[in-house]
């Protein structure tokens, strides 16, 4: 079955989602989804895509300290693009998707580094911006990790 045609802007920023493997101890938990943006070969990489992909690369490499700054930078770029009234993104709704992706990936970073509180806060923001399947998968992974945590009460 042939996939439906996407508008050029969306095609240029085709979203490639991939489950992020978890440590063996958490193998029974749902896997969060990192989102990386793939730019069409004829397009220059946009600032948001570049900063987001840097964030994702550092998370995959498990360099969580460096990833924190990179993910914050991706979120800053997404916010800036979303508020620029002249931006094509601000006229298409993709701005909300970019914000959701940035919050989602930062939530994955927090989850992978064991900070469930910040992970929950970021995933709530991502769900408000754009409740896509990738964001919902990460929300389920955070919920599963929360349920797996030993209770101290």
Oligomer class: single chain
How much helix is in the residues?
A: 55-70%
Name the overall outline. globular
Order of helices and strands: HEEHHHHH
Mean pLDDT: 76
Number of domains: 1
Please explain how this structure is put together.
- With 153 residues, the protein is mainly α.
- Strands 1-2 form a two-stranded antiparallel sheet.
- The chain has helices at residues 8-12, 47-60, 64-83, 94-112, 116-129, 133-148; strands spanning 13-19, 33-39.
- The chain is globular.
- The longest helix is centred in the middle third of the chain and has 20 residues, at 64-83.
Topology:
Elements: H1 8-12, E1 13-19, E2 33-39, H2 47-60, H3 64-83, H4 94-112, H5 116-129, H6 133-148
Antiparallel strand pairs: 1-2
Helix pairs in contact: 2-3, 2-4, 3-4, 4-5, 4-6, 5-6
Task: Briefly say what this structure is.
The protein has helices spanning 8-12, 47-60, 64-83, 94-112, 116-129, 133-148, and strands spanning 13-19, 33-39. The protein is mainly α and 153 residues long.
Jot down its keywords.
153 residues; mainly alpha; 6 helices; 58% helix; disordered N terminus
């Amino acid at each position: 079955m042939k996939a439906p045609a996407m508008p050029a802007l969306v095609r240029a920023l085709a979203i490639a989602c991939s489950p992020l493997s978890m440590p063996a101890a958490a193998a029974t938990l749902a896997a969060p989804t990192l989102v990386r943006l793939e730019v069409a070969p004829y397009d220059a990489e946009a600032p948001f895509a570049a900063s987001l992909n840097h964030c994702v690369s550092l998370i995959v490499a498990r360099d969580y300290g460096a990833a924190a700054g990179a993910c914050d930078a991706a979120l800053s770029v997404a916010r800036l693009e979303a508020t620029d009234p002249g931006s094509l993104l601000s006229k298409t709704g993709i701005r909300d998707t970019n914000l959701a992706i940035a919050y989602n990936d930062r939530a994955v970073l927090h989850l992978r580094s064991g900070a469930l509180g910040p992970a929950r806060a970021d995933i709530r923001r991502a769900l408000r911006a754009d409740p896509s399947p990738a964001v919902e998968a990460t929300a389920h992974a955070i919920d599963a990790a929360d349920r797996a945590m030993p209770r101290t009460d």
